[in-house]
Design brief:
Blueprint lengths: L1 H22 L10 E17 L9 E3 L4 E4 L6 E7 L8 E7 L10 E4 L7 E22 L10 E19 L1 H7 L4
Antiparallel strand pairs: 1-7, 2-7, 3-6, 4-5, 7-8
Length: about 180
Amino acid sequence: MKKRAITLLLALVMCLSLCATAFASEVQPYEVRYYYKTVDLGTYRTSIRGLPDGQDPGGHEFKSSTRIHYSLDSGKKISGGINVALPVPYNWISFSVNIGTTDGVGYSEGLDDDKGQEPGIYYLMITKYYDANAYAVYRRRVGTADTPENWVIDHTGVVLTFHSHTAELITPAQVKAYGLSL
């Protein structure tokens, strides 16, 4: 019985090895079509401002010894961008960052009214400052001369480095003036 099982298994392996070569397709080598290069476009100082998530739509009522806590780590995304010296449509490089939140756990910052804030209704506005290192990736088809006219922009991007932030209380009228929304 054992000898028959081994013989059957050996026959099966031999058949499969013949079938595998019959069903295999020829693999084409990867063909390089373009050369790429990255060009640094410089570092730009930019800022993003917004109202963090978790605020009461009616605002916060500040009185004596009132404190509002916030975190910079999460919250809604705010979009921004930088203008660089490239032809349209590559001259605007956009990005988005989290502006922050006033709810949840693990608050890292706080703002209170000890700076002489008048009692009233306020919203917390956070402004984040970044160093934006912009770059452009160019491509040139293989087989063309390495001359400036053969390089075309493939895409652009930006690497953001957080620099600092400010948090301030603003009135409902200032929210409208800045064009902000919750």
